[in-house]
Design goal:
This protein is mostly helical. It is built from 16 helices and 2 strands. Strands 1-2 form a two-stranded antiparallel sheet. α5 packs antiparallel against α6. The termini are far apart. The N terminus is likely disordered.
C-alpha cells in the first residue's frame, strides 16, 4: 500500500493539521477549544485581571494624584493593622484581658479542636490534614476573639458581627424556612395561598426591605407603636443599643431570605416518595420517626446545599445595615463588607482591599469547612 503522506509537500497543511485532513475536519477536531475560548478570555479579562490588580491594591498604599493613582508597596501592613494597629478595635473588637468565662470557653474549644485533629491524624491524606489544620487554626482564632471580647464584657468588631449574621442568622432562617416548607407540604387547605405569601419578601429589592423594616422597627411612629406604648418601652431606642441593633438587623435579613430556603425545601419535601411515608404510617411509625428516618435522609442533600449557598450570601450583607443604621451605633452593626466599603469611601483603597481579602479568607475557610465536615458527612450518613 503506498505511503499516504508521500506526496504531501511542506506548506500544504497548517500546523496541527494531519496529512490529507481538510480544514473542516481540523475545525471539528478542535471545536471544543474554539467554543470554550471566548469564555476563557472573558474570565481572564473580567475575573483574573481584577483579582491580580486588587492584590496589588491590598499590598500597597494608594494615593490619588493629578496624574492618577500612585502606588507605594507596603507588603502586609494593610493586613497587619487590622490585627495590631489602630484598626484593631474596629475589626477584631476591644481585645482585653480575658475573663474567667472567656478563658474557659477558649480552653474548651482549643481542647476539642486539638482532640479532633488528633483523631483525624493518619486517617486522611496530607492534603486533608492540611485542610483540617487550617480549619482548626481558624476555629481557635475565632474562639480566642470571642473569649477576649464578647465573653469578657468587651465590644466586638466587624469580624464577629459578620459571623453573628452568618451563623445565628442562617440557622434561624433554615429552621423557620424548613418548618414553613414542611407545613405547606402537608395536605391542608389554603396552602397555595400561603406559598405565594411566604415567597413575596424574596421579590422585594434589598433597598426596599431596608427602608420598609426601618419604618416597621420605628418605636415612636411605626405600626407597632401602640404595642410598644402599652408595654411602656416606647422611649427605648433599639438603634442606640449594639445588640438590639444587631438582632433587628438579623431579623430583617431573615425576613428577606427565609423565602429562599422555604421554596427550595418545599420542592425537596414534595419530591419525597409518598409510598415510603404511607408505608411507615401503616407500620405505626410516629411523625417524628417518619421525618427522622425517611424524610430527612431524602432531603438532606438539598438542605445542606441550600444552607451553604445562604451562608456564602450572608457573608456579603451590606445593604440592610447601611440603610437602617449606617453601621451604628458606632460600628456595632457593620459587616466586613460594609467596613470595606466605608474605608473605600475614605479613599483608603489599600486597606479596603485588605479587609475584602480577609473577608474572602474567612468565607472560603468557613464554607469549605462546612462543606467538608458537615455537608459530606450528612450525605454519607444519608447514603449509609
Amino acid at each position: 500500500m503506498p505511503n499516504a503522506g508521500a506526496d504531501v509537500q511542506p506548506g500544504d497543511s497548517p500546523a496541527g493539521v494531519l496529512p490529507h485532513e481538510r480544514w473542516g475536519e481540523w475545525l471539528d477536531r478542535h471545536s471544543r477549544t474554539f467554543f470554550i475560548a471566548p469564555a476563557v478570555v472573558l474570565i481572564l479579562i473580567f475575573a483574573i485581571f481584577p483579582t491580580i490588580y486588587s492584590i496589588v491594591f491590598a499590598l500597597s498604599r494608594v494615593r490619588f494624584t493629578g496624574e492618577g493613582l500612585k502606588f507605594r508597596l507596603v507588603w502586609f501592613q494593610n493586613f497587619a493593622k487590622q490585627f495590631f494597629g489602630n484598626d484593631q478595635v474596629h475589626f477584631l473588637g476591644k481585645v482585653g484581658t480575658m475573663g474567667a468565662l472567656g478563658t474557659l470557653f477558649f480552653a474548651a474549644v482549643t481542647a476539642a479542636v486539638l482532640w479532633w485533629l488528633r483523631r483525624s491524624y493518619g486517617k486522611t491524606s496530607w492534603i486533608g490534614m492540611t485542610g483540617r489544620a487550617i480549619s482548626a487554626t481558624m476555629a481557635i482564632f475565632v474562639a480566642w476573639i470571642i473569649g477576649a471580647t464578647l465573653l469578657s464584657g468587651n465590644p466586638i468588631g466587624t469580624l464577629l458581627t459578620t459571623l453573628f449574621y452568618v451563623v445565628v442568622g442562617c440557622a434561624l432562617q433554615f429552621v423557620i424556612g424548613t418548618g414553613l416548607a414542611f407545613l405547606c407540604s402537608q395536605p391542608i387547605s389554603g396552602k397555595n395561598f400561603f406559598r405565594v405569601i411566604f415567597f413575596i419578601p424574596l421579590m422585594i429589592t434589598p433597598l426596599g426591605v431596608g427602608y420598609a423594616m426601618k419604618m416597621v422597627a420605628d418605636i415612636t411612629k411605626g405600626p407597632f407603636q401602640p404595642l410598644f406604648g402599652a408595654a411602656t418601652v416606647d422611649a427605648w431606642v433599639w438603634s442606640a443599643d449594639p445588640w438590639a441593633a444587631r438582632i433587628v438587623m438579623m431579623v430583617c435579613d431573615s425576613w428577606q431570605w427565609i423565602p429562599f430556603i422555604f421554596i427550595a425545601m418545599l420542592a425537596a419535601l414534595e419530591n419525597v416518595p409518598r409510598d415510603h411515608v404511607e408505608a411507615a404510617q401503616v407500620d405505626g411509625a410516629s411523625g417524628i420517626d417518619i421525618f427522622k428516618e425517611i424524610t430527612w435522609p431524602q432531603i438532606v442533600p438539598v438542605a445542606v446545599t441550600v444552607l451553604l449557598i445562604r451562608m456564602i450570601e450572608a457573608f456579603k450583607i451590606v445593604d440592610l445595615p447601611n440603610i437602617m443604621t449606617g453601621g451604628g451605633p458606632g460600628s456595632s452593626t457593620e459587616s466586613m463588607t460594609l467596613h470595606s466599603m466605608y474605608i473605600w469611601r475614605a479613599n483608603d483603597i489599600g486597606t479596603s482591599a485588605a479587609v475584602a481579602y480577609l473577608l474572602l479568607l474567612l468565607t472560603v475557610v468557613t464554607c469549605a469547612s462546612f462543606f467538608n465536615y458537615v455537608v459530606l458527612g450528612q450525605l454519607r450518613r444519608a447514603r449509609g
